[in-house]
């Protein structure tokens, strides 16, 4: 009898874990790890002078891009876990986000379209050094990956609005976090390509 109850419990746990398919989990983690790798490759070995070089007064430095990446990731994960997932699921909204996974990933990294970051996630020199900024970025990315690995919430049934992409489910918000890092990594590469970028 105890064995039968254990089997039933395991089956129920397995059913509960269908909130995200294994493929969805693997895809999100692979995407988050891949964009992190690209960010690290773009920023590895830079001097503080290179981190803080601004191509123009109205353009961000690499330090500012990286700070913005980390601050935004914290905000998004907090909104997902502390706001969106606290409310009831709304499966009736699924039709609104159908097919957006790939489209938003493409649109988010397209730097021909400019967006102004909300004031709350603008860079303000929260950290003094490149090491502190990078540490924040990596800690926040580790939290996001840990969340995706372990969550039992149905991320496809909870939604938040985005100022550009409108309604997104919370799984799509995780993908957008990765795309956001890719977008600003591309911006970092633009800074490095500037003819006045310091050699050392």
Characterise the protein shown here.
- The protein is mainly alpha-helical and 200 residues long.
- It is built from 8 helices and 2 strands, in the order H-H-H-H-H-H-H-E-E-H.
- It has a two-stranded antiparallel sheet.
- A hairpin with a 3-residue loop joins strand 1 and strand 2.
- Helix 2 packs parallel to helix 8, helix 4 runs parallel beside helix 7 and helix 4 packs antiparallel against helix 8.
- It is elongated.
- The N and C termini lie far apart (71 Å).
- About 7% of the residues have low confidence.
List the SSEs and their pairings.
Blueprint: H1 2-16, H2 22-43, H3 48-52, H4 62-82, H5 94-97, H6 100-108, H7 130-150, E1 159-162, E2 166-169, H8 170-192
Antiparallel strand pairs: 1-2
Helix pairs in contact: 2-7, 2-8, 4-7, 4-8, 6-8
Task: Summarize this structure as a short list of keywords or feature phrases.
single chain, 200 residues, mainly alpha, two-stranded antiparallel sheet, 8 helices, 60% helix
Structural class: mainly alpha
Low-pLDDT ranges: 4-17
**What profile does the largest beta sheet have?**
2 strands, antiparallel
How much helix, percentage-wise, in residues?
55-70%
Quick synopsis:
This protein has 200 residues and is mostly helical. It has eight helices and two strands; from the N terminus they run H-H-H-H-H-H-H-E-E-H.
């Amino acid at each position: 009898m105890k064995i039968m109850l254990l089997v039933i419990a395991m089956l129920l746990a397995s059913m509960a874990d269908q909130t995200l398919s294994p493929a969805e989990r693997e895809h999100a983690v692979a995407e988050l790890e891949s964009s992190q790798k690209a960010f690290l490759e773009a920023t590895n070995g830079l001097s503080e002078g290179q981190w803080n070089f601004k191509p123009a007064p109205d353009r961000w430095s690499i330090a500012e891009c990286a700070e913005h990446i980390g601050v935004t990731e914290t905000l998004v994960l907090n909104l997902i876990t502390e706001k969106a997932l606290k409310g009831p699921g709304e499966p009736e909204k699924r039709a609104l986000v159908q097919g957006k996974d790939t489209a938003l990933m493409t649109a988010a990294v397209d730097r021909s379209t400019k967006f102004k970051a909300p004031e709350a996630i603008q860079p303000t020199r929260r950290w003094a050094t490149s090491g502190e900024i990078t540490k924040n970025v990596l800690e926040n990315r580790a939290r996001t990956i840990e969340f995706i690995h372990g969550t039992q919430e149905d991320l496809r049934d909870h939604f938040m609005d985005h100022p550009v992409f409108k309604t997104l489910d919370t799984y799509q918000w995780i993908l957008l976090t990765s795309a956001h890092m890719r977008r600003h990594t591309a911006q970092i590469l633009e800074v490095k390509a500037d003819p006045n970028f310091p050699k050392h």
